[in-house]
């Protein structure tokens, strides 16, 4: 390491892969011998540490070299990622951080990144190419135009209405997909698979509803063609991947690589996929993925125990000024709170999957969350609570109420979120906007300080749950205690109850 620090880091380029330090694994395949088969929309850290890595491992075995990834984005801020990645030939340094080890490798399964354009013309043209057989997405849980209270596709969203009225110049990923499928149908080029890789229960079904629903708004016949010929496999994806900041840039430079977009990740990955691919697929199972007809149970276990568990931690951590998820797990009040909510109020509503009982999975997640080398910020995990609470936490609450099971801890989780959305920590410091609907959330949170029911009156999030007396009464009690006595007092009271 000392020797590396005395040298300039090697710029990450395909032509310079041979100059990288010997401790860093790198592709042994030539990009000139790769051809595209996948367009991926939403090239963030998770995609590069997860789906792109699985494909990279296949390519390292001499397989799937006609399935290379072409990256894409539909948001203006995706252009900055495109610039960074194209400047380094779309390579990424992945740094695995275990509790007691680290290692690095360069992933090369992406070969291009399309221009980011308001009308998505380049994206539509690429997806219309018959060589593209899969279009995959990581566009966040809130990017599927789902009404959080009903779980159904929202055809009234302004961006969906725009795309239905302007099918040749769409704003959204789904509008671009529909436009490309129209071109393919008309040219006789055949369908492609649309594969969601986001943390949504039934992500394939949700994606199908968005694509088919949007198509039918403007062209019912096209919608019927897509429904009949395209496939939308459900999947469960899992790997903790923090955001990249100055510390990660410095870490990769210390390893001897000049990478403008490195990714750190934990030493765990899982990918369970429904085998429903209308135009073929890579053999991801040869590098550790699982094809299963039982994706629903896998994704329910993961979304409830891990993703809902993240929300149990993050809002308490924000209020108490605890910087990372690992720090939350080291906190004397937050970790016991997390463990009890998981054991008493989440695990009972999860069924086993092959080789894993829910309680054992919760133990695994506890170990993963506590990894001190994964600096996953509470702010990142708390982002977009309006989607994450609605998608991860509230389905558990609804089942618990129906089963007359305990809900006191989940009510406290929701009260902590309401208190966080008031916009200040308990030390008086400001919590910056952290949700697409922050202004509305903050207004509801401020009103709820005196009238807790004001928070539950957000039917776009809670639906009729705010009318359930056991939950509403517990929420009222916890939120008043948090405002009057503080977060720590509420956590301790729950521990004693």
From TrEMBL:
Residue intervals of the Mannitol dehydrogenase C-terminal domain: 294-480
Keywords annotated in UniProt: Oxidoreductase
Single Gene Ontology MF annotation: oxidoreductase activity, acting on the CH-OH group of donors, NAD or NADP as acceptor
UniProt keyword DNA repair present: no
Source domain of life: Bacteria
Mannitol dehydrogenase N-terminal domain ranges (all copies): 37-286
Pfam family, one: Mannitol_dh_C
Keyword Oxidoreductase annotated: yes
Descriptive protein name: Mannitol dehydrogenase
Organism the protein comes from: Meridianimarinicoccus roseus
Classification lineage: Bacteria, Pseudomonadati, Pseudomonadota, Alphaproteobacteria, Rhodobacterales
